[in-house]
Amino acid sequence: MTERSFDQRDLRRAFGTFATGVTIVTTSDESGTNYGFTANSFTTVSLDPPLILVCLAKSAGSCSIFQKAKNYAVSILSESQREASATFASPGIDRFAAVRWSKRATGAPIIEKSAAWLDCSMHQTVDAGDHIILIGQVEDYDYNTRPPLAYCRGAYVTFGLDEDTLRVAEQTGALKVGAIIEHGQKILLQIAPTTGDITLPIAPNFGPESNPNSLLGKLAKAGFKANIPFLYSAYSDEEYRFVFYRGEAWQIDDANGISLPFQLFEPSEIPWERIKDSAVKSMLGRYVTERERDEFGIYVGDAVKGTISHLGGGGAQ
Fold it and tell me: Per-residue pLDDT averaged across 124-142, rounded?
C-alpha cells in the first residue's frame, strides 16, 4: 500500500472534529513535586480490571516524569474550569498555585470542583509514535452532577443551549423551558392541581431561582436544588418553541419536603394515562428507555416528527 504523506496541521484539524471532554492529568515525583498537563486524549479501556488511558507528547517537559511515575490522576473538568484547562496547558507558570487540589489514594493531586476524578496506579506505558500512552488502573474515583467541559474544533463547547440563545428566545415570549429531573432513581413530574394531569416540570423561562415563575424558581419553591446541564429535546408547535433539558436534583429541602405541584415517581410506576401531552409522553417514554442503556440522544424537530442524534448514530422519532 502506497504510503501517503499528511500535512500534520490539516490532520490535526481532522482529529479535532471529534468532540471530547477535557482533563487535567497529574502526578508527583519522589520529592513530592507536582506535575500536570491538560489533555483531551483520554479514554476508558476496561471495566475488569478498571483501566483508563491518556496520551502525552514526548516533547512535553514532564514526559520523563510521567514515564517513571508509579501513579497518576485524571480530573475530568467541569464547565466552570476553562481557566484551569488553560493554566495546565501553559508553560512556565506555577500551575498548582492557580487551582485548589487535594490527594487521595495514590497521592497524585486531584483538581477540586471537577466533574469527576480517577486516581490510578500505573498499569503500563506504551511507546506510540511521538506520544507515550499511560495506561492506569483505577484505585479510587468520584463524580458529581457538574456539567463537564467539552472541546471540539479548537474551541470549548457546551452541552445545552447557551444563555444568550435562551435569553433571545425568552424575549420573543414564545418559549417554554422544561426538564427531566431525577432524584434517587425517581423522576420528578408536575401535577395539575385541578385535573390531576401530569407533565414534566415546565416554565416560561429557565431562571434564575429568584424568579418564582421560572423553572429554577418553581423547583426552588418546591424544595429542590437541581443541576440541569444537558439539552434533551428542542421542538416547536404552532404556538411555542419548547426546550427540555435533563439533569439531577442534588438536594431536597428536608425542612419543607416535596411540595405540590411536584411528585417523584419510579419509572415503572409513572401513570402514563394521566400524561395528556403526546409530545411530553413520547419524550418521557424515550428517556425511560434510554436511561436503561445509559445512552441519551437529543431530539430536534416539531411536536410530531424530528430526528434523534446519538453519539453512535441517529434516528427519527
Answer: 96
- pTM for the whole thing? 0.67
Ramachandran angles phi, psi of 260, nearest 5°: -60, 150
Helices and strands per DSSP (H, E), number in the chain: 6, 22
The conformation of residue 257, written as its DSSP 8-state character, comes to: -
- Is the preceding omega at residue 148 within 30 degrees of 0, hence cis? no
Q: Is the pLDDT of residue 219 over 60?
A: yes
CA 110 to chain centre: 18
Grid coordinates 445509559 are at which residue?
A: 294
Contacts of 179 by beta carbon, 8 Å cutoff, 6+ apart: 200, 201, 202, 215, 226, 228, 244, 245, 246, 247
pLDDT digits (tens, 9 = 90+) for 220-270: 888 888 888 788 888 888 888 899 998 888 777 654 445 568 889 999 999
d(CA 241, CA 303): 10
- Which grid coordinates belong to 135? 495506561
The residues near 62 (Cβ < 8 Å, ≥ 6 apart) are: 35, 36, 37, 56
3-class SS of residue 38:
strand
